Amino acid sequence: MTDERLRHSDAAEYPARQVAGRGPGWYRGDVHLHTVLSAGGELSPGQLAAAAREIGLHFVATTEHNTSAGHGDWSRYAGDDLLVILGQEVTTHTGHWLALGLEPGHQVEWRYGVRDDAIEHRLAQVRASGGLCVAAHPYAPYESGTLAYPYRCFDAVEVWNGQWRSDLPWNADNEAALAEWGRNLGHDIHQGRWWPAVGNSDAHLAGQLGTPHTVVHAEELSVDAVLAGLRAGRSWIAGSTAVDLVLTAATGGRAVGVGERLDSGGEPIEVRVRVAGVPSGTVSLHTERGTVLRERLPGDGAGTIRWRTTARDGGFVRAEVRHPDRQMAALTNPVILT
């Protein structure tokens, strides 16, 4: 059956652009998860939907390995309180990527590697229908899991992947992915195109969903609006729904948040990070000059960090929050300073 025939066969079972009726705001979601249709998956769509609602997620994406067979199964679990995005984890021979926002039944070809010059065509097919392409777990230490394609091929990069684990979701693979992303960020912003970071659980088993997940600012809780927020980098990554964070940069009465651009006119800029849910954690701020500030949160895990800078001193600022054991609790996309 061709992709087109699959698309029509599932169209009545699932609305391609499900709108859940919520206005502008911050929404929490996990866009990399698996059911029993993927190797190692032990959960049904119903179990994952129930778990998403229980922990307070607003959206999820179904991303089975190389199949769209489960798209129609999710229609009964979507609602005003839970948006379901149709997708696929495309496991090529030399790296995995997430195709998000697919039409029902659209299956993306996966049988190629970096030497086949095939990936750009497949990415273009997903983008042509409004979809988003995300580099998945770039440093996963298993055959085909390590990404051989450059980050610039994609629309966003999964710098934090739960790697099937809820007990220790931050590891050396994620540290390496974040380091590569952060090292190139200043150059990419200066060149006029940067790649937003996302974080997902890659859930296969019970208890993994949402560890971590991405918090995105969207104009409404719909597929198009959520993908637009992710594409623009209007998002940050949380290790759990207990963690909250707001990063802003302000000058002259104007304030912007993550993924936005602040034209300071050469005036001083005040950066603020407000955090909750990370007891005795550490907040750090980062620019192209490296780590420029590090401060400890109080024992109750709530606090506001302030730092003053200028656009001359840095073209962006982003934040990280870590638990006392150095496990990541949250990290943000940058605020662009001009």
Automatic annotation (TrEMBL):
The organism of origin for this protein: Micromonospora andamanensis
InterPro entries in UniProt: PHP_domain (IPR052018), Pol/His_phosphatase_N (IPR003141), Pol/histidinol_Pase-like (IPR016195)
Coiled coil: none
SMART domains to which the protein is assigned, alphabetical: POLIIIAc (SM00481)
Domain of life, per lineage: Bacteria
Name under which the protein is recorded: Polymerase/histidinol phosphatase N-terminal domain-containing protein
Positions of the Polymerase/histidinol phosphatase N-terminal domain: 29-94
